[in-house]
Amino acid sequence: MDSPIDPTNYPAVLLESLRSLATQPEERHYRVVFDYFYPKLVIFFRVRNIPSHRIEDCAQDVLLLVWRKAAAFDPTRGSVAVWVFTIARSIAIDTFRRERHDRYELLDNQALRSSEPNPEEQACNAEAAAMLRAMMQDLSFQDFELLSKAYFEDFSHSQLAQCQNRPLGTIKSRLRRISIALRAQLEGIR
Amino acid sequence: MHHPSPQLLLAYAEGTLPEPHAAIVHTHARHCGVCRPAIHAAVEGMAQALEALSPASVPDDIFKRTIQRLDQPVMQPSRPLILDWKNARTRWVAPGLRASRLIRQDNSSLYLLVGQPGVTIPQHTHRGLELTLVMRGAFEDGGTIFNVGDIAESEAGSSHRQTIVGQEDCQSLLAISGGRLHFASWPAKIWQWVARI
Q: In sequence order, what are the beta bridge partners of B104?
């Protein structure tokens, strides 16, 4: 292995080194794989927008896993490069996730029962729209006007405050009050 | 069958999709004999691209410093999410429609939707890519029927509506990004506000 490596034969050389590493964990086998991949991994993580202070750790993590999992490498499932890429991809995803840890959550279903504002998606078929119209008929004219300006004409809260000549807080609390009233009716329909 | 688009499969293989969207592609591919080899081929292509990168210049002592870390713990690579959607507790959002949020990541979310036959999710647009995977039943979107295992892909900014068809409830996974859906009609907007959806 001390002889210079033929660059056209890298896949075979890498495979050979990795197999040797699996049976004899020695630095000389590791070095071949390390020297080939480390400088490319640095670029890989840079392209992935990993923060520059984390890049060295990430590239090292990939290659430390390569050493540890060398015996688990299965050449029938692809080349050494494919294997290293899949490890690098996982590390990139994890790092990304960790950097923004507070903004990622796998919600447990218990949490979904809380009263926090929940799904942002869907709703409303013809029946629902009809029910909603009926509900809105019970609103006072002022409330109806406010609601339709806010949602039909897409006025912002501060625009509403301006055109109604009322403080922003008043507008917000009126909208909240209408929301609570409508929601209570909604509970009744369920 | 409706498969993910080539761009979507590439982004999945590359590992650059938001978690909710990746979970949908992963769930589809687990049961799809067409997409699994396609993803494998994409990964091979990416590995070749990794090899083709021109190497960065690296510190002289980097090998030595890495070897020194050998006895330290390393973060274990993540595994794809396996969703326990069957046991998810759904909440009422509209007549004939229930939902449960399974994942939230930044402004992307994954929902389980359960709709009764005939229910329509009205015309809406979204700022990001919307993906729907049918887990049970069927729905119709723009004249196309989507059955179990099918993925409906809706680009950012496009406008569409979905109606549940057939005799049984339709369970689907919905991944959206770019925040809330934007409904076209004002009753739908107000409904969205009142029902907190």
A: A105, B109
Structure tokens at A144: 């109806």
List, as ranges, residues 130-169 from B with C-beta within 8 Å of A.
none
Is B191 an interface residue toward A (CB < 8 Å)?
yes
| Contact at CB, B197 and A121, closer than 8 angstroms | yes
B133 CA: distance to closest CA in chain A (Å): 15
Residues B63 and A34: beta-carbon distance below 8 Å: yes
Segment B120-157, tens digit of pLDDT: 887 777 778 899 999 999 999 989 999 999 999 988 77
pLDDT level of residue A108 (50, 70, 90 thresholds): very low
**DSSP per-residue codes, B100-124:** EEEEEETTEEEEEEEE-TT-EEEEE
Of the partner residues A87, A147, A189, the one whose CB lies closest to the CB of residue B190: A147
Cβ-defined contact of A119 to B183 (cutoff 8 Å): no
Strands (E), chain A: 104-106
Measure the CA–CA gap between A130 and A134, rounded to whole angstroms. 6
**What does the pLDDT look like over A116-158, one tens digit per residue?**
333 333 333 345 555 666 666 667 767 777 776 766 555 677 8
CA neighbor of B117 nearest in space, from B83, B49, B163: B163
Interface ipTM > 0.85: no
Alpha carbon A138 to chain centroid, angstroms: 43
Give yes or no for B88 touching A (CB within 8 A): yes
Neighbour order of strands in the sheet with B120-125: B144-146, B138-141, B159-165, B120-125, B182-183
Contact B190 A133 (CB under 8 A): no
Q: Tens digits of per-residue pLDDT, B37-83?
A: 999 888 888 888 888 888 899 999 999 999 999 888 777 766 666 67
Between CA B147 and CA B184 the distance in angstroms is 26
CA distance B114 to B107: 22
Q: Whole-model pTM?
A: 0.70
Q: Which helix (H) or strand (E) holds B165?
A: strand B159-165
Instruction: Please indicate whether, in this complex, the C-beta atoms of B186 and A152 are within 8 angstroms of each other.
Output: yes
Is the Cβ of B91 closer than 8 Å to some Cβ of chain A? Answer: yes
